[in-house]
Structures are given as structure tokens and as C-alpha cells.
Amino acid sequence: MRRAHPAWGGRKISKVLQREGTGSPAPSTVTGILHRNGVELGLLGGGAKPFGRFEHAAPNDLWQMDFKGHVALRQGGRLHPLTALDDHSRFSVVLQACINETGETVKAHLIVAFRRYGLPQRMAFDNGPPWGDGGRSNFTRFTVWL
Is CATH 3.30.70.20 what the domain over 62-145 is classified as, yes or no? Predict the structure, then answer.
């Protein structure tokens, strides 16, 4: 079956065997059989690709910033986790529980981070508030401030 379909791995072959009524070996068993017979998996498509981590060359080359959703509070309202990560070190330069997602709130926390860690060369963030306006304009008050 593998010769006929070189991109298939243990999970696919196991499912096909089960569907055809030929047998129902576990995917790990099929993968083990393929390995014992010298078949290399993942080279011709299918399966997970190797993880490729990117990393900037030096601290403060790039900070990645975002609000990570929100958390409902028992007494009402929401908490908004604000994060800013240095792309070189993966160090969290900002990790703050905020009461809102406004530009003024973000500015206040960024000023503290800038004073403590210096200014980044670049910042990456999505196009939602307060950073962007959904793509309608190249600049917002917040990006002009930055």
C-alpha cells in the first residue's frame, strides 16, 4: 500500500485497512512496521513538517505585541491580558492584566517597558484596535505615537 501511495503514513494506511476490512492495526503499529522495513516517513508529503523557529539576531530587534483575548471577572467586566515579547530572547517585556484595550492603556504599559528595556527597532502587532483600524488606514493615533 505504501508503494502505491508514497505520501501515506501510518495513520492513513491504518484507516484504509480498517475501511477495507483487511485489518485494523493501530497507526503506531503500521508506522513501526514501515520503520523496521527502512521506509522513511514524512519525506514525500503528509505528516507534520519539522518545526522551524525564527528568531531575530539581537534583543530589541523586534517586539511582538497583542492582547490575548479576555477573561470574564466574577464581579462583572473583563480582564484583558496584554503581552509584548522580545523576538530574540522570547522574554516577555510586557505581561499585564488590563481593564480595557485602549491605546492609552497600552501606551502607559509601553512607556514603562521602554524605560526598562529600551526601544525596539520594530514592533509587530495585528490590525485590530488599538494598533490598527481593520485595514482602512495606514496610520492610527497609536501608530503615529509609536
Answer: no
Q: CA–CA separation, 71 vs 81, rounded Å?
A: 8
Instruction: Tell which residue, 36, 58, 44, 54, has the closest CA to residue 12.
Output: 44
E-strand spans in the chain? Answer: 62-67, 71-72, 78-86, 92-98, 122-124
**Window from 17-21, 38-42, 63-67, 102-106 with minimum mean pLDDT:** 38-42
Q: What is the pLDDT of residues 35-75, one digit of tens each?
A: 888 887 765 455 556 666 678 889 999 999 999 989 999 99
Asked whether 118 and 134 are in contact (CB, 8 A), the reply is: no
Q: How far apart are CA 17 and CA 93, in angstroms?
A: 52
- Give the residue range(s) of CATH 3.30.420.10 domains in the chain: 62-145
